[in-house]
Design goal:
Length: 192
């Protein structure tokens, strides 16, 4: 039966069963990997209170956050090397890359009327592209060093970093991207 032909009650039962199956599979994976000292999630370029890492921890998993606020500033080589060292030690199963996309987004580029606004955007864009280059280099390194690690990237639909001449175009085939219409910063689903 195609999903679109399910009744509302059937759809509800299917969703509950899917969530139970996901939780069971996640529990098995977590138990297996915890025995080998690996972390389940490395969330990179995130906020200190990111909901994704917290959700993994709430489900009994091990997650770490890496960003400029805790010594992993990917706008410079020191942050790049610090993160590479940490990822080597932690050997995550999944990396979620939440690199800055604002300077490449349609909204940031829509209202550049004055020379000052254009200059400020150029500075933001330069920093964001340095971070994106370091993300690209880290993902390419990890694909070789830890091929079993999955990689995901958040990507607003209108952001150019994975399109055209963007810094992350070489990773387009390797990354599992999540597209959203507009910025979804801080948003969660109905169940947290």
């Amino acid at each position: 039966v195609p999903i679109r032909d399910l009744t509302q009650e059937q759809s509800k039962v299917l969703k509950v069963a899917t969530r139970a199956l996901e939780a069971e599979a996640l529990g098995c994976a977590m138990a297996l990997e915890a025995a080998h000292g690996r972390i389940h999630l490395a969330e990179i370029c995130c906020t200190s209170d990111s909901k994704l890492a917290q959700r993994v921890v709430n489900l009994g998993g091990r997650a770490k956050r890496y960003s400029h606020w805790n010594g992993f500033d990917l706008s410079n080589k020191a942050g790049f090397h610090a993160l590479r060292t940490e990822l080597t030690a932690d050997r995550p199963l999944l990396c979620c890359w939440s690199r800055p996309c604002g300077p490449d987004s349609q909204m940031q580029n829509a209202n550049q009327r004055t020379p000052e606004q254009r200059a400020a955007l150029a500075v933001k864009r330069h920093r964001a592209h340095r971070i994106q280059k370091n993300v690209r280099d880290l993902v390419l390194w990890m694909l070789k060093a830890f091929p079993e690690c999955e990689h995901g990237a958040e990507q607003p639909t209108g952001c150019g970093s994975l399109h055209g001449q963007g810094e992350l175009v070489p990773l387009k085939e390797q990354l599992c991207t999540t597209n959203c219409n507009g910025c979804a910063f801080g948003m969660t689903g109905p169940d947290g």
